[in-house]
From TrEMBL:
Pfam families, per database record: MiaE (PF06175)
Example of a GO biological process term: tRNA modification
Molecular functions per Gene Ontology: tRNA 2-(methylsulfanyl)-N(6)-isopentenyladenosine(37) hydroxylase activity
Protein source organism: Shewanella fidelis
Name of this protein: tRNA-(Ms[2]io[6]A)-hydroxylase
InterPro entries, A to Z: Ferritin-like, Ferritin-like_SF, tRNA-Hydrxlase_MiaE
SUPFAM superfamilies reported in the protein's UniProt record: Ferritin-like
Amino acid sequence: MQQLLEPINAFLTCSTPDSWIDEAKKPENLTGLLIDHCNCELKAAQTAMFMVRKYAVDDASGQILRQWAKPYEEFVYNQGRSIEEFLASSGKKNELASELIGRSDFVQSDDLIAKMVRLIKEEFHHFEQVLQIMQNRGIEYQNIRAGRYAKGLMKQVRTHEPATLIDKLIVGAFIEARSCERFAKLAPFLDDELNKFYVSLLRSEARHYQDYLTLAEAIAKQDISDRVAHFAAIEAELILSEDDDFKFHSGSPKVSVTADIA
């Protein structure tokens, strides 16, 4: 595990504060943490899917991606089925209906498709895994409002292409790297089931961070260390500063803060 985490810790410029771990390991915060984690997995899949649809594939392939996401989004936004019903539905819901066709006017389309489709598939699977854990513990799925972390990073994204895509990929790298770091740091304080589950996520989260960063470098065709350093500073400030809301990616919690479920 330590070998896996070394590049992650070198990429991030700060560690998760002990105050966040102290709050996260409290039994009364576990429900909110799992619900937020579940939402994060789906959001990660949706973000990657948006990038593929916007930059890398034609309209027909975009519709294939929409159909892939449909059962997950219907469960979350329509709330028409229980966790049990969703998990018991077709085992093919996490499979693409057919091959995606890359756009000829985007040189990195095939590489972006390959890396992001694998990421999406894994994030959908993680979403289902968290739902299963929630079901086993009698925790209902709920929508919760987004925290400041991803919003704070996205505010720094430039508004002209290809800079927009490059910055979004760098943001994705930081989110995945921070997830990996937090899974590893929190796991020892959780029960056996969650400990094993969070440790099992480390390898895929570490690869996701590398995939995002590799794509950003390839698309930029030049050194991106300045942009990485810029986002590293913003990310560290968000992680180390006090946060009114307790979430999986929130900053240092204020005293007596508890998980906020809308």
